[in-house]
Amino acid sequence: MEKKDIGLVGLAVMGQNLVLNMESKGYSVAVYNRTGSKTTDFIQKRASGKNIAATYSFKELAGSLKSPRKIMLMVKAGSPVDEAIDQLLPFLSKGDLIIDGGNSFFKDTIRRNTKSQAKGILYIGTGVSGGEEGALLGPAIMPGGQPEAYDMVKDIFSDIAARAEDGIPCVSYIGKGGAGHFVKMVHNGIEYGDMQLIGECVWALKNALGLDAKKIADIMDKWNSPADELSSYLIEITAKAMGEPDKESGGFLVDRTADITRMKGTGTWTVASALELLVPIPTIAAAVFSREMSQDKDLRISVSEHIKPAQEKYDSNADELIKLAHDALYIAKISSYAQGFALLEAASKQYDFNLNMAQIAKGWRAGCIIRAKFLSRITEEYEKNPSLKNLIISPFFKDYINLNLSSLVRFIEISHKVGVPTLAMDSALGYITQLANPVMVSAQVAAQQRDYFGAHGYFKLKDGSPQVLLKEDGSYQEYHTEWMEERHPEKKL
Predict the structure, then answer these.
(1) Residue 191 is a catalytic residue
(2) pLDDT the model gives residue 492
(3) What gap in Å lies between CA 238 and CA 123, rounded to an integer?
(4) Residue 349 catalytic?
(5) Which of 23, 191, 200, 381 is labelled catalytic?
(6) CA–CA dist 26, 50 (Å, integer)
(7) Best exposed site among 10, 23, 31, 101 by fewest CB in 10 Å?
(8) Can you give the three-state secondary structure of the chain, one letter per residue?
């Protein structure tokens, strides 16, 4: 058998589609799946007549590839990845490359990279976004590992990746170690936020205006017009899905869809990583918590029999509310993406990823789930100022927020009055307004409380200034009040 350019392990739909994508771009591929019948079925059907070869063992797979070998794993995250690597390693040689294209946790990727390097094997943890369609027609690809490892697959990845409107492929070297999978994880966290924010808009329009699914679909379709700043894949598919009829009831499928949203873990990992790195991402967290709440269906049915939130009637202009919802969604998206990029900045420093924010945003412009017109603007803002402290203070977004923040405030107010919980919208607003306050009074109160009950100490502000008093070495000067002595002088020891 003629040696193939690349091997792929795992023939679920994503794996199959990536193989077909590679082959369509002129690359020969050898495939392996743990269940051999699935390999045979793929070769006989979707891969029939194509330059794709079936193998039925890791030894056969390794033997079918050109040297240095390149093998991409498309298996379930967790122990299946470790098992596949352990079974592959005996058949690999120094300089060969393993590519993990699944949604692996970035710390697992760092560990696996170290383990493989010790045996002379190169390793790339690669985020792949775009779902089944993206895998086949062009995904966004986020590879992280050794630069020389990326060089081995740069051409393949560039050829199979999605292309933005300017023709640039949505792939670039992200950084060393687990950088690729960290960036993909944050992408998914932002995706959670986007989906929740859109859902809250739909709920508000439904409750306040009494619109049916088709009318809301039409609104979303307008928001997805090329000239609109909300134009994106998620808005596009929301419009398409909401207009889908339910053949059984004659109504709309969305109204018959159970209000339970499952998740695979990347959103939870994003929130956990933010907690570890001390980076606030409240909108993404709210989206994760809302998904968790959706799964408590029986509890919600039970509670709804006892608690009846007020629902006032909205009697103002419908077009005004639709415009408010549009502008509120855009501002909330700015806030949510700012949170995600702040997390990327923190991880870049903590793990020495050396992430390029403009390059990351540029790579998300097509192929991936969060692809949107909006990302071109983010790319421009980071290209102008790579050391930007936070996305919300970039010139364009700062001006938009200052002009339109009241729309988000008003939309949240109306949503609450018509009985719609807006956890993600609320937190998007809170993130902006907390950052915009040089002195957080709630934090002042909490600092005093901690010192009072636990003698934890506190810092002081300069007189008449929001700046903190510093010691000579530039660190914060710490203070403590002897609360017990002041309140109970008779108990002084």
Answers:
(1) yes
(2) 57
(3) 37
(4) no
(5) 191
(6) 10
(7) 23
(8) CCCECEEEECCCHHHHHHHHHHHHCCCCEEEECCCHHHHHHHHHCCCCCCCEEECCCHHHHHHCECCCCEEEECCCCCHHHHHHHHHHHHHCCCCCEEEECCCCCHHHHHHHHHHHHHCCCEEEEEEEECHHHHHHHCCEEEEEECHHHHHHHHHHHHHHCCECCCCCECECCCECCCHHHHHHHHHHHHHHHHHHHHHHHHHHHHHHHCCCHHHHHHHHHHHCCCCCCCCEHHHHHHHHHHCCECCCCCCEHHHHCCCCCCCCCHHHHHHHHHHHHCCCCHHHHHHHHHHHHHCCHHHHHHHHCCCCCCCCCCCCCHHHHHHHHHHHHHHHHHHHHHHHHHHHHHHHHHCCCCCCHHHHHHHCCCCCCCCECHHHHHHHHHHHCCCCCCHHHCHHHHHHHHHHHHHHHHHHHHHHHCCCCCHHHHHHHHHHHHHCCCCCHHHHHHHHHHHHHHCCCEECECCCCCCECECCCCCECEECCCHHHHHCHHHCC
Residue spans of the chain under pLDDT 50:
none
Decide if 109 contacts 82 (C-beta within 8 A).
no
Rounded Cα–Cα distance for residues 64 and 255 (Å): 51
* Residues 145/205, Cβ–Cβ less than 8 Å: no
Distance in angstroms (rounded) separating the CA atoms of residues 291 and 341: 22
Q: Alpha-carbon distance 169 to 174, whole Å?
A: 14
| pLDDT at 178 (0 to 100) | 96
Q: Which residues are registered as beta bridge partners of 144?
A: 125, 175
Give per-residue pLDDT as tens, 72-96: 999 999 999 999 999 999 999 999 9
Two tokens, residue 112: 């696996």
| From 4, 176, 184, 362, the catalytic residue | 184
pLDDT on residue 491:
61
Cα 451 off chain centre by:
37
List the beta bridge partners of residue 122.
97
Q: Residue 47 in contact with residue 19, Cβ under 8 Å?
A: yes
